[in-house]
């Protein structure tokens, strides 16, 4: 949400800022060895264009010449700034009429006389050209995508205000993406779930693409060492973003279940993008890869969106999260993919919208991942609870009770408190089963569990030890009070048995033992068990204390 707020501020007109100087423009392919002075207004080979609208120039080996001049042929008072927004990885060289040399810049390498620009390339003009003359830009897109650009002429103060605002906006968006990716990696380590890895891979790859396209990784981050790897890095980041996006959607939205036939073409699409990225590294085939990868990106966006719609309709809860977070990003990506072909050239906000959409996507999908992790934790806790509970009585089973007894033992020894144990066995339970059936036996076991819960404290640990045998751990209870607790349980069950003419409620024999100095738990359980057998031998329906 913070990124969206910054986006609204960044894209709104600057209050009090002077308006851009209206420009006119023309361009043509350059000729090898041609001097800048030879390019003049009135050349019949020039093609006119509107500098305020997006314009992509050719990728000829000699580059292209772009001429810019004020609509009314009246240059503003210097100094002023000429900015080229959306230049991407192209190299621009400015030739001011009368200047001794050109000033060149690209996102990854800034001439000392050109300003960094943060998201654009900027040239400060100290001396205005004469009326009727034009600023000449040489645009070189050799080896990179010829990204569409816009041009503007601004007073220095207005440019600096807009640049500071954009820098704050871009920093907030990229920081949000980085934070969400880092959080996902931490979840991946803790939950051992590849879904979080795929998500983090996509977010980081997409953030890198935005950082390269806007020049943010070079200014303000200052990672100039990346400039020698721009082409390779750009292809790897593009392929990684697509592959990780598809793999994430596949697992997060559970396409295997909700869209089993549609997921295979998506995985094949991710493979095709990877193949093109690999082909682009091979000398002589990079032009083919560049020509094919952009149309694939344009087609793949809606394809992924449609897949998430179908999965949502078919009941995938997380496909809805994917759809909500992904739709703005896919729309912006498709718009950006169409603009190099001259379409939607008036939508000059797409570059900034890509940053905001990336931040929004990272936030929404992180919420979805958090929801998924909570669901996984609930399922895990429920599964563990079911594994710990005896389904008939609702008490701890033998394994779970033994684990809790170990924890209680460590606590009472540390605190110097007593620990007592009850070992309980229903009297003549086999005969009851043989006489009345197993349903009556099950009812008797449940009645035993109810009686123990009624007479024991919340902190006492009750478990079914096996068959008709039960155990109770009483932390902080000495032998005398443990005898009282056992007698209450015996008396409750005896009173119920006396009121049951059908004889479906058995009585219980109970052995009581208290942990002695230096005694271990197996010995304690053995003594309580022996005391229970002593109660049986003494006539049943009684409590005996271990010696």
Automatic annotation (TrEMBL):
CDD domains reported for this sequence: GGDEF (cd01949)
The keyword Zinc is annotated on this UniProt entry: no
Keywords: Membrane, Signal, Transmembrane, Transmembrane helix
Bilayer-spanning residue ranges: 166-189, 196-216, 236-254, 266-285, 291-311, 318-341, 347-370
Domain of life: Bacteria
InterPro entries per UniProt: 7TMR_DISM_rcpt_extracell_dom1, Diguanylate_Cyclase, GGDEF_dom, Nucleotide_cyclase, Rev_trsase/Diguanyl_cyclase
Any Pfam family the entry gives: 7TMR-DISM_7TM
Catalytic activity: 2 GTP = 3',3'-c-di-GMP + 2 diphosphate
EC code(s) of this entry: 2.7.7.65
Keyword Signal applies: yes
Signal peptide (residue range): 1-18
Domain GGDEF: 417-547
Entry protein name: diguanylate cyclase
Organism, scientific name: Cognatiluteimonas sedimenti
